[in-house]
From TrEMBL:
Pfam families the record matches: HAMP, HATPase_c, HisKA
Name of this protein: histidine kinase
Residue ranges annotated for the HAMP domain, each copy included: 167-219
Xref: SMART domains: HAMP, HATPase_c, HisKA
Topology relative to the membrane: Multi-pass membrane protein
Compartmental location: Cell membrane
UniProt KW keywords: ATP-binding, Cell membrane, Kinase, Membrane, Nucleotide-binding, Phosphoprotein, Transferase, Transmembrane, Transmembrane helix, Two-component regulatory system
Catalytic activity: ATP + protein L-histidine = ADP + protein N-phospho-L-histidine
Single Gene Ontology MF annotation: kinase activity
SUPFAM superfamilies, A to Z: ATPase domain of HSP90 chaperone/DNA topoisomerase II/histidine kinase (SSF55874), Homodimeric domain of signal transducing histidine kinase (SSF47384)
Bilayer-spanning residue ranges: 143-162
Length: 425
């Protein structure tokens, strides 16, 4: 946009300069020629008094004195055919001047000014002053150079002013674009300043109105999720009481632990739903959190005859994800393994440091693999599930500056690679 504005201003100013300077340049050329012609005419007329008296030695002496000074060369054509002063051809214009008519005519190499002087008895004498082309254009180049410099200066100043104006407008437009990017990244507090022309203020106002509307709708959605999650507390309380009423056994302990885990998850959902989006994403030690969750799921893996292979980096391994969010991600990945593969299916978990900071979590199983091409899409599942688990993992990874990749394992099954960005520095 800035370049287009500069091109537009340059075009308009250039047209104006051409329309203004070209006539001035032609006028300078005409004035120089008129000045030289007027000087030559005055020089020729200075001999008129002498030529009108006679054609004797006085006229010859006057012509020699005039040509002895710097100026246009003078030639006197006498009615007898003699020529005094600077030698010159007897042109058609000279012959016409012998009829008693003074005139100016173009000649080879310049311009000749002819003054006819009627003598008392001998006839008409013609005084010729010659102006060369160099004299006709003397000072024109300098005048043209000055006009060119003035035009270049005007164009440069115009472009400078246009560039400043374009910068100010582009700064406002860029600011609005940055606000839109911040909104897209989840910063709903971003607002565009109402500055600049009326059109830009309208755009900024519309963007701010949209941001406020998004904030309100998102807050309503969070409250709706929180209310829905809160409604789950009643049946969970009943399940916990039922679990506490079971005879003490390993199975009762597992049921109680599962109910407690579900209560913690519901509580976390309520807190997350009511947390502002501009809160810091948090930071935790990925090595410790993954090790703890693997220990929790290893009990169920042992009951289902699953072989768990793990290769975890040494702590600390900081990532830009809160502990609760990372726990949810690991649980979602491992829950998918248990939910979508038959009992006895082995799986592997690897955690390593990521180049540039963060961590890479790799979960591979030997099951049937992904049955749906859009398994990472929110709400899409190839089995009887909500399809939200992998989407939660993906969004958590992207908020930290990472990503999630789905692929088939080397020996069949599914492979999920999750990259978490580094924590705050």
């Amino acid at each position: 946009m800035r370049r287009r504005l500069l091109v537009l201003v340059a075009s308009m100013v250039s047209l104006a300069l051409v329309a203004f300077l070209v006539p001035l340049a032609l006028l300078a050329l005409m004035l120089a020629a008129d000045r030289a012609t007027a000087d030559a005419l005055v020089r020729a007329q200075s001999l008129v008094p002498v030529a009108s008296v006679g054609t004797g030695p006085a006229l010859e002496l006057a012509v020699e004195q005039a040509n002895g000074t710097n100026g246009h060369p003078l030639t006197v054509f006498l009615p007898t055919g003699a020529v005094l002063g600077e030698p010159a051809p007897r042109s058609e214009a000279v012959r016409l001047a012998f009829t008693g008519r003074s005139l100016t005519a173009q000649a080879r190499g310049g311009r000749e000014i002819l003054v006819a002087v009627a003598g008392r008895s001998a006839g008409t004498t013609v005084i010729r002053a010659f102006v060369s082309d160099a004299d006709l254009t003397r000072g024109v180049r300098r005048a043209w150079l000055i006009l060119a410099l003035v035009g270049a200066g005007v164009l440069a100043v115009s472009l400078l002013v246009a560039d400043r104006l374009a910068r100010s407008q582009i700064r406002l437009i860029t600011g609005i674009a940055r606000v839109s990017h911040r909104l897209a990244a989840g910063d709903l507090t971003a607002r565009a300043p109402g500055e600049g022309p009326e059109e830009l203020r309208q755009v900024a106002g519309a963007l701010n109105h949209l941001a406020e509307r998004i904030r309100v709708l998102l807050a309503q959605e969070r409250e709706a999720v929180a209310d829905l999650s809160h409604q789950l507390r009643t049946p969970l309380t009943v399940l916990r009481l039922e679990a506490e009423g079971l005879p003490e056994s390993e199975q009762a302990a597992r049921v109680g632990a599962a109910v407690e885990s579900m209560e913690r998850m519901v509580t976390r959902v309520i807190k997350e739903a009511r947390r502002a989006r501009h809160d810091a994403p948090g930071e935790c030690d990925a090595a410790r959190v993954v090790a703890e969750r693997l220990e929790h799921w290893s009990m169920l893996a042992h009951d289902q005859d699953r072989l768990v292979s793990q290769e975890l980096a040494d702590p600390p391994l900081p990532v830009g994800v809160g502990e609760e969010a990372l726990t949810t991600c690991v649980d979602a990945l491992l829950e998918n393994v248990f939910a979508h593969t038959p009992e006895g299916t082995d799986f592997e978990v690897r955690l390593s440091a990521r180049d540039g900071g963060g961590a890479v979590l790799l979960v591979t199983d030997r099951g049937p693999g992904f049955r749906h091409p859009g398994a990472a899409t929110r709400g899409v599942s190839g089995a009887s599930s909500t399809g939200l688990g992998l989407d939660i993992v993906r969004r958590t990874a992207e908020r930290s500056g990472g990503s999630m990749t789905l692929a088939d394992g080397p020996a069949g099954g599914a492979r999920v690679t999750v990259e978490f960005g580094p924590g705050p520095r």
